Amino acid sequence: MTLPTHLPYSGIATFARAPIVQPDGDWRATFAVLGIPFDIALGFRPGARFAPRALREASLRYVPPFSDLNGKVWLDPAHSSDPLFVDAGDVVLPSLEPELARERITQAARQVKARCRLPVFLGGDHSVSFPLLRAFHDVPELHVIQLDAHLDFTDVRNGTRYSNSSPFRRACEELPNLVHVTTVGLRGLRHDPEAAQAARARGHTLVPMEEVEANLEAIVTALPEGRNVHLSIDADAFDPAVLPGTSSPEPDGFTYALALRLIRGLVRRHRLVGLDLVELAPNLDPTGRSELLAARLLMETLSEVYDAGH
Amino acid sequence: MTLPTHLPYSGIATFARAPIVQPDGDWRATFAVLGIPFDIALGFRPGARFAPRALREASLRYVPPFSDLNGKVWLDPAHSSDPLFVDAGDVVLPSLEPELARERITQAARQVKARCRLPVFLGGDHSVSFPLLRAFHDVPELHVIQLDAHLDFTDVRNGTRYSNSSPFRRACEELPNLVHVTTVGLRGLRHDPEAAQAARARGHTLVPMEEVEANLEAIVTALPEGRNVHLSIDADAFDPAVLPGTSSPEPDGFTYALALRLIRGLVRRHRLVGLDLVELAPNLDPTGRSELLAARLLMETLSEVYDAGH
Amino acid sequence: MTLPTHLPYSGIATFARAPIVQPDGDWRATFAVLGIPFDIALGFRPGARFAPRALREASLRYVPPFSDLNGKVWLDPAHSSDPLFVDAGDVVLPSLEPELARERITQAARQVKARCRLPVFLGGDHSVSFPLLRAFHDVPELHVIQLDAHLDFTDVRNGTRYSNSSPFRRACEELPNLVHVTTVGLRGLRHDPEAAQAARARGHTLVPMEEVEANLEAIVTALPEGRNVHLSIDADAFDPAVLPGTSSPEPDGFTYALALRLIRGLVRRHRLVGLDLVELAPNLDPTGRSELLAARLLMETLSEVYDAGH
Amino acid sequence: MTLPTHLPYSGIATFARAPIVQPDGDWRATFAVLGIPFDIALGFRPGARFAPRALREASLRYVPPFSDLNGKVWLDPAHSSDPLFVDAGDVVLPSLEPELARERITQAARQVKARCRLPVFLGGDHSVSFPLLRAFHDVPELHVIQLDAHLDFTDVRNGTRYSNSSPFRRACEELPNLVHVTTVGLRGLRHDPEAAQAARARGHTLVPMEEVEANLEAIVTALPEGRNVHLSIDADAFDPAVLPGTSSPEPDGFTYALALRLIRGLVRRHRLVGLDLVELAPNLDPTGRSELLAARLLMETLSEVYDAGH
Amino acid sequence: MTLPTHLPYSGIATFARAPIVQPDGDWRATFAVLGIPFDIALGFRPGARFAPRALREASLRYVPPFSDLNGKVWLDPAHSSDPLFVDAGDVVLPSLEPELARERITQAARQVKARCRLPVFLGGDHSVSFPLLRAFHDVPELHVIQLDAHLDFTDVRNGTRYSNSSPFRRACEELPNLVHVTTVGLRGLRHDPEAAQAARARGHTLVPMEEVEANLEAIVTALPEGRNVHLSIDADAFDPAVLPGTSSPEPDGFTYALALRLIRGLVRRHRLVGLDLVELAPNLDPTGRSELLAARLLMETLSEVYDAGH
Amino acid sequence: MTLPTHLPYSGIATFARAPIVQPDGDWRATFAVLGIPFDIALGFRPGARFAPRALREASLRYVPPFSDLNGKVWLDPAHSSDPLFVDAGDVVLPSLEPELARERITQAARQVKARCRLPVFLGGDHSVSFPLLRAFHDVPELHVIQLDAHLDFTDVRNGTRYSNSSPFRRACEELPNLVHVTTVGLRGLRHDPEAAQAARARGHTLVPMEEVEANLEAIVTALPEGRNVHLSIDADAFDPAVLPGTSSPEPDGFTYALALRLIRGLVRRHRLVGLDLVELAPNLDPTGRSELLAARLLMETLSEVYDAGH
After folding, report:
1. Total count of domains within chain E
2. Does the complex come out with an ipTM higher than 0.95?
3. What is the pLDDT of residues F127-180, one digit of tens each?
4. Residue F1 falls inside a structural domain
5. Contact F39 C46 (CB under 8 A)
6. Contact of A289 with C240, CB cutoff 8 Å
7. In E, which residues are within 8 Å of F256 by CB distance?
8. Is A301 a domain residue?
9. What is the CATH number of the domain that holds F255?
């Protein structure tokens, strides 16, 4: 009889039951998880600060290895020489002080990135993508692929340049190596005209949600193969029916299957150098399915990265 | 740097931050909103009385003008000579007394209708559509287009003629100018045979949900162009996955996109004279996405009306 | 004026307002409902113990007869010589003692099965399908058709052979007459390789969710017509957007319409001898739509059985 | 080993597992329960329509007999010649029609009252106490003792004479035998001055909450012993900390112990002829403790009545 | 028959149905309400941003005038020459920028304070008390009386000087006229020793919760009569049983009655120049009783202020 | 400026941020925490399986050292030679198999107990106290002090001897060194007469809740000083108003202050050898205050143990 192991609700919750490390510790891993429980830069319903813990807990329903009905196995720690996963905990953030918070996020992200094949960042609101991207200042020709209902390329929103509406605007200003942004899933009702114009002027690719399904292949192949890509997944890219736990839902978004198809295509074609999942607000979904879906998506994405082998 | 404005959760909540008026005051506007917090005529789970306030709050995420990724702008108050929106508050209703309540609803609706291009009524359960429609007794050849999972054309339900199952039956009886009803999205399990027969005998158009998508164009063009239309949107027309906050959900309803396509077609082809959104029960959806979707739908509908210009 | 009857929230809740009987009482009926409020064999979020009562309450929105927009009537008690429905209550279960619980479930299921055309079992977690199936030991060439995100054919999970991951493994071991299992809707991430191999070795049909829609006809006709079928519906077969109230949701499952199409095909082609609905956890869905959908599904399934007449 | 019996969440929920009867059936019992799922006469948060079922379910944690730590046993069905409990279900109510509803409530209450030692009425909002009291028109010198945060003696509220603010005003007008009302627990902020004056003019006893504890004995002995008493318990008499599930909570109300002490004193001194518990709104308390407390209070009250023997 | 008026859930929600004014408008009033929906300076569970709207809605159950069982009337607008109440809306706040936010809060507070007898501020987290108090820089010998479980006198918390742990430290530093702070209800587990020492060094009065009841009179009379007092009520001063909707609850706090007794004593003895209620998080209390209690407390406090007449 | 540290919602949640150890690892500590996420032995509402994680998270608001308003410091890790806390994670439990589960609980408890001054066990339902107590078989003259609404000394409940109604009965049978049980807070309505008699026959002390406050000193001094005590705290000992998150609440229980006074007295007089907190069901309290109170109680209890020094 097999030995009992922890059921998903049992045991101290680290991501996929990975060992805990310090961001600046002495470790190497294929995938390293870092939480950024920061949500004071959003403009509607808070709660993304609770996402890193919720994702850790949800990940325990999806601990690798995975296997399909034919016995094919993915993401098998037993076949990996390196540790497959480590959990670097959460960035230690100050209260309130946004600039200091951004510094600490960038610093921890740099430390984690230097020690693993792919860092996996658990937001937090979308403003954290800016300090996270600063950790990639040394990546040649960096591309961002963003799944999102909103553009998040606004210069100034309501008196600030650092809200969750502006991360990619700031990143493009500060990172000369960030050459291109592809935003997929757009369907807000009040797109900032200046932001859209600025994005287009930079040559960014903007794909409204209603055009995604018909153009999936084209979106995947729009970039020449083998680019260095940071993938940023905003929870509100998803249809609120499948992922209601987010601050600013917009109807008619991604299903899980469609998002996975897009991500698979991108991951197989390009080299993922960074990955963040943001704007998940577990407190807004009492059914718990939002974090379960997000955790599964991360796991299947990482399986693809591992299989792609580049 | 732009001046800060209210975030959606800030400020006294009027619809789209419109100025407050009295239904019988001295004002003119393109769109005037009137709430009818009445829900004692439904037969299952109450809560629609809370909808007018919830819709006002949700509308603050969708305050016009709107703009697309190409910079096109809709519903721009700056380009409007008239005030675009006013909020006429809620009808002052008695406790319990249904007949008095209906009188007051009709009276307030008449007052509002007389002062604006299009009155927008926020229910309330579906029984309020009858007293609302009485305010349109003077509209020549009035058509009702109803998005609904249920027929709501029952003569008597459980001892009453004025429940949320009967508004259109009563309206057809009392309003000689109400010449036709189109009901789209039907998928209840216990359609009242007498009601269906009566509706068909009057020549009404009844479209089951499973036939909507394939026949969208036909539904839109079924009526000769330019009819005077009151549009009544029951929240349970929507799929409960996308709008769970309603008393009597039925599976497999409208997505947001499909509803919007239908409404756009209708609004462009006909002249909307009245609009109600009913049976939204915010207390039944702790994720808050039900009222956000409904508020966005109203805003996009009004954009179309404004653009249609008739 | 019609006499008032109970609204759905009124009156003691028996399934479809059926008379109450004892499982071993002196009665005959077309359909007999039996609840099994047992949920200690699942490995994640409990609550299925509350499903039998929740389904009884939800069934009151869908009390037969049903009628469509053309006046066609189904499941009309008035046209039935036998009582159409009885409610046999819940199995009286011990605390904690799993083996004793299984015995009592089998015994009560046998008693109910002997007195009706079709027993309808309301779980409980999926482990109850094993003791339920034992009541069908005397059915020649029994087939199981299972709608489920997971295989539930695991030999041993976490130290036990009787969890909700193993009911069909146990049933196949103990019931020589159980000749075949068809599992439709599979989409877990960690299918047990040994279980999948064992199922395939027995010739079971395993249909991943993404292949269901394209192969609906083939799934229905895979078995020669007229088989004796026990239909087991796991709530997690459904998309969590439409049925969030379940312990272990997996994204991208059945819509209501698709499930109904599949079930209709199966019911018309085969002879349903047993039906269970399991893993519904009403406590995990504060909107209440999960049990409403499940109750409606049961009612439409029974309409089909009744119409099929075999 | 003892035979298993139903756990509280198991089995069809009748009050205390009592047999089901029709209000006008052929039965006799000591206590008969009747539900009145009517809540359209309240002016704030609905949900009392769900109370009868919630109380039935909660009662299953408190099924008699009861026993203390010394082995003393109360309310033992085994020692009762008559059936101790029956459950007469809910009054069959029309939709919306308040007057018809009141008639049916009075009629069913009369039928139940005629067949038992003490009818136990489960509201419903407080407006139902008026039609319930009409069933006691033949009781000589009827006294009402009311536990309530509010006076409920208003003549007209917001256009109606039959809301949950007026039941005792109407009862005093229509029932010449209703000689006196004692209201205990008053602590609203906007007592209707006319109502207070009218109550005092009739000689009613009004006890503010802050005077209850110090005057408990005096309240009990204010009436000469042996009066015929209808006890009406409004859920908002309780402190919202201990019973949050009610439409209009007011801080600093009864604890359970204090309410029980008062009720015990009254029940031992007088003859209880009727009992109602109203304004319980289970939908407003997700912890479920409101209905558990109310069910326990009913059970302990009935124990006292049984012991008092008069 | 009296004319219907709005029920509490009806009508656009301004505080106590007061007219809306701009903070810098042309108006005078006895009481003016200003909301500060700012909650990014707290260190645990957000939600206080939703409090101003929730308090406005809850206030509608407690619209003056009030009257007791003897017909005595308080806070009667009919007997007031000035407008009794105005609602100045919420401060228009920037996203994220804490310093700019504090400036705007102070500015709006000054404007409101200059136009009324007593400004009533609705937080927001407790950090807003610092910018609010800056509006009282011109009040001679200002005293703060603070009801709170925590000291909120910390110099620096987790890298910031402006969190909700520091408002009174900052205020004492910047306002020479702030001569004394009385903090009542202390019961945290980790009082900052430096903060306690600093407060004592300034001569502040610190009263642990367990000493409040026995020393109520002493607390009230500790200050010489007639001081200018700003009263700051932290929602976590209350027992979480009576007010669960707050970020950082601590057991065994104020009951409503005890808080009201203390406040009455203070208000009668001193001159209230400012009043804030902070740290109410309506999203954390699904029963809604937290905001109802807070709204009632404000109303009864204002009644006392009005009666005191100074 | 102090360095930022984690806010309570940040960082991987171990109890009080303690280092993680294996139960059988190479470590020593003053206090060691072990979770037992087992809740299939209760008879009403499940959820205690979620308590160990919830308590870990809640403990992060109460990380020692603690300090009062006078600067006195408790439980200061800086002044401790040994590690003050370790977190031994949760017992690895099988699915369903109760006997195997009990074995593993006893084994892990023994391992933890052998390595620390005081093991702190986080249930789980109350059935876990039996396997936990087996780990204390070698403690001379063991006393159990139990805070509980219910006796939990039943021989057989509903077919099982191992439910959460029987832990102390089983422990007394199997542990000759368990000489005495004191149960404080009893207030169930259906005390098992046989259990009460058996407890009294063994000389146990049974204290009903209503006698606790008046007899606090007597309860504390009932045992001769210096006994070896295992303290078992059932969450339902508390008043449901202050701790609603528990399966089977009973009104009028302990306040936090009263429980703490009792525990302080006991801890100072006796030698605590074991401590468990059970029956906390975080899923039943959406306000989160239940686990916050329980975590604080544990922390203050441990402070007393540390100070007592024996």
Report:
1. 1
2. yes
3. 999 999 999 999 999 999 999 999 999 999 999 999 999 999 999 999 999 999
4. no
5. yes
6. yes
7. 251-252
8. yes
9. 3.40.800.10
